[in-house]
Amino acid sequence: MDVAMLLTAELAMLGHAAAAIVLGWLYFGRFALARPPIGIFSLADVGFLLGGIVVVPMLYLVLPLWLVAGLLALGALSTLQLAGEPLLPGHQALWAGVLGFGVAEIVAFLMAGPLSAPFFLVNNVLVVMVAVAIANLWAQSGMKARDAAVLGAALTIYDFVATARLALMGDLFTRVAELPFSPLVAWPAGPDGRWLGLGLGDLLLATVFPLVLRKAYGRPAGLAALALGLSAVVGVVALAHLTAISIFPVMVALGPLMVLQYICWTRLRGPERTTWQYRQADASRQHQVSLTVV
What we know:
With 294 residues, this protein is mostly helical. The chain contains eleven helices and two strands. A hairpin with a 6-residue loop joins strand 1 and strand 2.
């Protein structure tokens, strides 16, 4: 085992995870997505998401690889286009940026290879941006802290069964890791083609939960969730390193933390704020800050 390469892979994965969580927080405080197309998020949407989470991995295991890569590319680039609208003025600049990322991904895949550091670097940046975009889409579409906690609890059970009891997640990661637009944050961990990775789903839950708690109970609750989410990812990496576990169900650590935080803040603050109440309170806070600066 190359200890130096493994440590580098762990640090790279943690760095990208931290980038997604922090950038998701910064985006949420500064940019509004234009007319999120999924409507108002509700518990019914949680059920729909869970159904997709169960079905989609199975489809990815049986569909032709070219079709899986095409679906991954379509999902990633369309998500970037949605999140890029508030950032890039004009459709030409936006689509140039989105297509630029797509071209960079394909070039890195073809020139450096699917398990190389250059390809992982480009793909990791893309996955981080996708996680930031989807997390903000959910949070700005009205996802409640309750919804996120229910989703986290359900995914804890699913992740434990699919990862620790079945080979589903292991087979899925092995299949998609060598495709362009792979939904993984990963890095080479050995000279024999081994790599260390974190799935987009785990990264997304760690990114979105601070946002919905911030919206529901204020910035202290969101910042606490941000710190705890990062701590959970660090703890999982450290535990996997110490015990030499090849694949670890991350939601087993992250999901219970989400549920416990929701219960604690509900008891401390009562019912969570609506999206409208959050926006009113945030606008008032920004107005007070501007008056103080002046």
